[in-house]
Amino acid sequence: MISSGKDIFRIFILWCVIAGNPVLPRANADEGYPNKPVRVVVGFSPGGGADVVARIVAQKLTQILGQNMIVENRPGAGGSVGAAFVARSIPDGYNVMIVSSSYSVIPALYKNLSFDVVKDFEPVSLIAEAPLLVVVHPSLPIHSIKELIAFAKARPGQLNYGSGGNGTSGYLAGELFKTLAGINIVHVPYKGAGPALIDAIAGQVHMTFSSILSALPHVRNGELRALAVTSAKRSGSLPQLPTVAEAGVKGYRRTTWYGVLVPAHTPAAVVNKLSAAVGKAVNSRDNLQRFMADGAEPVGSTPGEFHDYLVSEIGVAKAIIKRTGVNQ
């Protein structure tokens, strides 16, 4: 006969161990997280803004968490290939994803996704926000947004711009620019912003709307010519450069952002630990200086704050797509 509540509790614990109840191992695993290397998935090719951010943050997280954070590029379909992979992963915190603002565009452009951009993921933290740079190859006789618009209007369909593919930040920025400026320039999609930037530098495409994090070094060394920033205010890294709106395209504003997601049902303890670590990584002295020098504004947010931000950005992306009339 069981004589006390303590006996009942001991029997329950013994039953959990014998039955292989997953509750106990999960709790212990959460407390020890991470105890092996963590895969950091980027849905774009190397060299683009998301890849640059992922490598900056992963390096610091390796120091903070004591385990290697290994960046893995899985490009395709505006980042949805990498997202689908992470959505199917075991929700244990060992597959995390670095996303950019392109992620908020996916549901409006791709109708038959195998995942839900909100329900199938747990937000971890917003990393940073940054403007895009409107850059052209130096061989073009274009030194301002007004000259770009005049050049394009005189040659409809002859200018082109590269982007990381349909649904990416550069693509949406380009299509919004075309609509508001009333010009016809041809979109050339790539499998990532990195390859698009490389071809812009080589002169294979005339221009691109590129993350300031990846384009700024090439502007500084003369490989590209920057015409404007896409944000509402000027960048501290290039204060002499006007915004697109200042340069004559009224109402234009488009920025990019970067954040961290993990699969839905990842334990809250893991999510919170990751979120705190990302906050420390983003706001560490060296990364603060690096982000700000490259024109990005570091953030570091709570999971709840990033969730609300993401939902808002999805709504903004849908509105822009409706306004421009673009589709997959």
How does this structure look, described?
With 328 residues, the protein is of the alpha/beta class. The protein has two domains: 36-130 and 256-324, Bordetella uptake gene, domain 1 (D-Maltodextrin-Binding Protein, domain 2, 3-Layer(aba) Sandwich); 131-229, D-Maltodextrin-Binding Protein, domain 2, CATH 3.40.190.10. It is built from twelve helices and ten strands. Strands 1, 2, 3, 4, 5, 6, 7, 8, 9 and 10 form a ten-stranded mixed β-sheet that branches. Helix 7 (169-181) packs across helix 12 (303-324). The radius of gyration is 23 Å and the shape is globular. Mean pLDDT is 89; it is low at 11-29.
Short description:
With 328 residues, the chain is α/β, with parallel strands linked by helices. It is 43% helix and 19% strand. It starts with a helix and ends with a helix.
Note the topology.
Elements lengths: L4 H15 L3 H9 L6 E5 L6 H17 L3 E5 L6 H8 L7 E6 L5 H4 L11 E16 L8 H10 L5 E4 L5 H13 L4 E4 L3 H10 L4 E5 H9 L4 E5 L25 E9 L4 H15 L2 H9 L3 E2 L4 H22 L4
Parallel strand pairs: 1-2, 1-3, 5-6, 5-7
Antiparallel strand pairs: 3-9, 4-7, 4-8, 4-9, 4-10
Helix pairs in contact: 3-10, 7-12
What key attributes describe this structure?
ten-stranded mixed sheet, 328 residues, alpha/beta, D-Maltodextrin-Binding Protein, domain 2
The total number of structural domains is 2
- N-to-C SSE series? HHEHEHEHEHEHEHEHEEHHEH
Helix segment count? 12
What is the level-2 CATH architecture name of the largest domain? 3-Layer(aba) Sandwich
Distance between the termini: 69 Å
Largest pleated sheet: 10 strands, mixed
Q: Uncertain segments of ≥5 residues (pLDDT<50)? A: 11-29
Q: Any idea of the CATH topology of the largest domain?
A: D-Maltodextrin-Binding Protein, domain 2
Tell me the quaternary state.
Answer: single chain
Q: Cα-atom Rg, whole angstroms?
A: 23 Å
Name the CATH superfamily assignment of the largest domain.
Answer: Bordetella uptake gene, domain 1
Number of strands: 10
The CATH class label of the largest domain is Alpha Beta
Mean pLDDT figure? 89
- Beta-strand portion reads 15-25%
**Approximate helicity band:** 40-55%
